[in-house]
Design goal:
With 346 residues, the protein is of the alpha/beta class. It has two domains: 150 residues, 3-Layer(aba) Sandwich (Rossmann fold); 147 residues, Dihydrodipicolinate Reductase, domain 2, CATH 3.30.360.10. 29% of the residues lie in helices and 23% in strands. Strands 5-2-1-6-7-8 form a six-stranded parallel β-sheet, with helices on both faces. The chain has a six-stranded mixed β-sheet with strand order 10-9-11-14-13-12. A two-stranded antiparallel ribbon has the order 3-4. A hairpin with a 2-residue loop joins strand 3 and strand 4. The protein is globular and about 60 Å long.
């Protein structure tokens, strides 16, 4: 059965990255369509050595396609998700729109691949972003080995996860400060150049931000609902790459040396932890363009029983929702989902 794949939001940052990853991983599709809103119709995007022209999503026949990867904002995802899935096209959504929906599986293939089978409930799959994924991929093997009880995480989030305008704002403010131009915040609540902002997304009634709540909810949905997580999310003046300082309390003893060895054997993780060398840990700059989640500074936390502390870094654009979406599509394809006729999948 010929596999036809649509990328909705193909002209955006995540959409373009999805096409790049599909090409690099030689994703086996018979036809790929680039779709966008009407204002972007005709815009060109690269797909390997091919150029795709964006089509009007409003005019596209979704019943002619077996898979759609949505790389849109939350509002657009809510508008299109049900419409596309009800046409018989399986939807993989990179936004936050459906992540908390109990009928929609939240899938990070390196964490909970079997959850992909839940697509049959709504023909919809949600994938987490890079921030949650890089934490989840490290917690999963630790949880299987010794049981994760509690996690305290402070994030250092680059501006790229807030979009191109946010990256432009950091660039403009940085240049402006050198010529005595007052930085004017637009995309962020405060000046981002030469500053850190302890707020990512809006505040909730309990004082936590939506991003901080989301990390906890998504980790618990993917790994174990009993894990307790408290997060402080901070925006930093870095263009790309997210970092996390993580403190973990385990149910059973797992010394740092054993945790280091375990993580070295875990898929998708690179351990760089050489205390006596200048390059003995990874920074966001080092992670750019890489697939892996990097873990450094793994050490015992003596303030709690069975405690570990570590530093986690990943390229949030490459090792984020775009990669999760493509890997989830590969899971579906490898499990023969697209070989079945439409009526067998409904």
């Amino acid at each position: 059965m010929a596999l036809k794949v649509a990328i909705l939001g193909a002209t955006g940052m995540i959409g373009r990255e999805i096409l790049n990853i599909m090409d690099e991983r030689h994703f086996d599709a018979d036809e790929v369509f680039a779709l966008a809103s009407r204002k972007s119709v005709g815009a060109e995007v690269s797909f390997g050595d091919r150029i795709l022209k964006a089509r009007d999503a409003e005019q596209f026949d979704w019943a002619s396609c077996q898979l759609c990867i949505m790389a849109t904002g939350d509002a657009a995802a809510r508008k299109w998700g049900n419409k596309i899935s009800q046409a018989g096209c399986i939807v993989i959504d990179t936004s936050r729109a459906f992540r908390a929906d109990p009928q929609t599986p939240l899938v990070a293939p390196g964490v909970n691949p079997d959850a992909v089978e839940g697509y049959t409930k709504r023909n919809l799959i949600a994938v987490p972003d890079g921030l949650t994924t890089q934490l989840a991929v490290v917690l999963k093997p630790l949880h299987e080995a010794a049981g994760v009880v509690r996690v305290v995480v402070a994030t250092y989030q680059s501006v790229s996860s807030a979009g191109k305008r946010a990256m432009d704002e950091l660039w403009v403010q940085t240049k402006g400060i050198y010529v005595n131009q007052a930085p004017t915040p637009k995309e962020f609540p405060r000046q981002i150049a030469f500053n850190v902002i302890p707020q990512v997304e809006e505040f909730m009634d309990d004082g936590y931000t939506e991003e901080e709540w989301r990390i906890s909810a998504e980790i618990r949905k993917m790994i174990d609902n009993d894990i307790q997580i408290v997060a402080t999310c901070v925006r930093v003046p870095v263009f790309a790459g997210h970092a996390e300082a993580v403190h973990i309390e385990l149910a059973e003893p797992l010394p740092a040396a054993e945790a280091r060895a375990l993580l070295r054997q875990s898929p998708g993780i690179m351990v760089v932890d050489k205390r006596d060398e200048e390059d003995g840990y990874v920074t966001p700059v080092d992670s750019i363009g890489e697939w892996a989640t990097y873990v450094s500074r793994i050490r015992d936390d003596p303030t709690v029983e069975n405690g570990l502390a570590m530093w986690i870094v990943a390229d949030n654009l490459r090792n984020g929702s775009a990669l999760n979406a493509v890997e989830t599509a590969e899971l579906l394809r490898n499990r023969g989902v697209f070989n079945a006729p439409l009526e067998a999948r409904e």
